[in-house]
Write a structure and sequence with these properties.
It is a single chain. The chain is mainly α and 381 residues long. Among the domains are: 129 residues, Serine Threonine Protein Phosphatase 5, Tetratricopeptide repeat (Alpha Horseshoe), CATH 1.25.40.10; 84 residues, Tetratricopeptide repeat domain (Serine Threonine Protein Phosphatase 5, Tetratricopeptide repeat). Helices cover 76% and strands 0% of the residues. It has 22 helices and no strands. 43% of the residues are buried.
Length: 381
């Protein structure tokens, strides 16, 4: 509230200022100032009460309308905030702060088109006012327009390099584009300023996990949790890094907590399925793969995982059925042929296994050790 509230001048000056304004009585002034004092103490509801009393005396005062709208915004009472901020904007259409606050209110209500309109209006009024750039970046991130989010966040940070939201959005935009080096550099640039901020620590941990800095990732994610982060992502990435370090008991625990927080995320079930597979709990692995498949039926990794459970539980014919169906899809990964070769080999279909392995060698562009393994298998076949 301290950034948006519009306090009046010191008491003596205020009286002089308001004495020249028609229709402004001492009672209106008193409640306005009492509202300011309450807001500065963090008592926003009481501040609103005073400002509404002030507004009753002077309904055409845009500053009072703005203050009430800003307080409602922070209180999460978004439709009411919109009402007062629209009234303020009507009274003072050329005010960049009012337009920004209106944009934020509309964004909070998922009225993104209206929010963008207000943010752009704020920028057109005052181009070096950074908050609406961050607002536009936030919307672009929600709409999965990551390059656009990157652009607007960078513009905002050019004006205010230490802004927390801007740095988080820019780092997240890099992260979601798979640009982990830039994401890491960006989040490190503000880590010292916000050393205990849970959002900073969470994003840092996620980036570290993707950069295979798993021990550091676990430390950052645990610190994020200790400082208040409690969403599914904390546990998902704790699970991923624990799994990568071979700490399967911890991985199972964290993936389980993530699935409890958000049972609709297939990534969590995939993590559990992989963990159970590594510990030889194939029935549990299959159950987790099935849950993941129900949430993300087009994910080819899930089909591969299911086929591996079939292969390792001596059901190669079932694995063949899954893999041949997958191979018919345009987006089938080349690793499908590798698993298919193994499934044919386990079911005694040596000629088909040989054909699948040869096709795999022809298309595989990944780890060369798999090619060496397959060539050795072909010799035995």
């Amino acid at each position: 509230m301290s950034r948006t509230i519009r306090a009046l001048l010191p008491a003596v000056s205020v009286v002089i200022l308001f004495s020249i304004l028609p229709g402004c009585g001492d009672d209106s002034l008193k409640h306005y100032n009492l509202g300011v004092e309450a807001a500065e103490r963090g008592e926003l509801s009481k501040a609103v009460e005073h400002w509404q009393k002030s507004l009753h005396k002077r309904p055409d005062d845009p500053d009072t309308q703005f203050n009430i709208g800003s307080a409602m915004l922070e209180l999460g009472r978004f439709p009411e905030a919109e009402k007062y901020l629209r009234a303020a904007a009507k009274l003072m259409p050329g005010d960049h702060e009012i337009q920004f606050a209106l944009g934020k209110t509309m964004e909070k209500q998922d009225e993104l088109s209206e929010a963008k309109k207000a943010y752009n209006m704020s920028i057109s009024i005052k181009s070096n006012y950074f908050p609406p750039y961050i607002g536009l970046a936030s919307i672009a991130l929600k709409q999965q327009q990551y390059k656009t989010a990157e652009k607007y966040a960078a513009q905002g940070l050019n004006v205010s390099p230490r802004d927390l939201d801007g740095n988080l959005i820019l780092s997240e935009a890099y992260f979601l584009q798979g640009n982990y080096q830039e994401a890491y550099a960006q989040i490190l640039s503000v880590r010292g300023l916000y050393a205990t901020n849970p959002d900073v620590l969470l994003l840092l941990g996620k980036i570290m996990s993707e950069r295979n800095m798993h021990s550091d990732a676990i430390a950052a994610l645990k610190s994020a949790k200790e400082n208040g982060a409690s969403g599914a992502d904390v546990f998902l990435y704790l699970g991923r890094s624990s799994y990568a370090l071979g700490q399967y008991s911890d991985a199972e625990k964290y993936f389980g907590l993530s699935s409890f927080k958000d049972p609709s995320d297939p990534k969590t079930w995939k993590g559990l399925a992989d963990t159970y597979f590594q510990t030889g709990e194939y029935d549990k692995s299959m159950e987790a793969w099935r849950k993941a498949a129900g949430l993300s039926p087009d994910d080819t990794d899930i089909d591969l995982g299911i086929s591996m459970v079939y292969i390792n539980t001596k059901r190669p014919e079932s694995a063949v059925a899954v893999l041949e169906k997958l191979l018919a899809k345009e987006n089938a990964p080349s690793r499908t042929l590798y698993y298919l070769g193994h499934a044919f080999m386990r079911s005694g279909q040596k000629e088909k296994a040989r054909e699948a392995f040869k096709e795999f060698i022809a298309v595989w562009e990944g780890d060369r050790s798999l090619i060496e393994e397959v060539n050795e298998i072909l010799i035995t076949l």
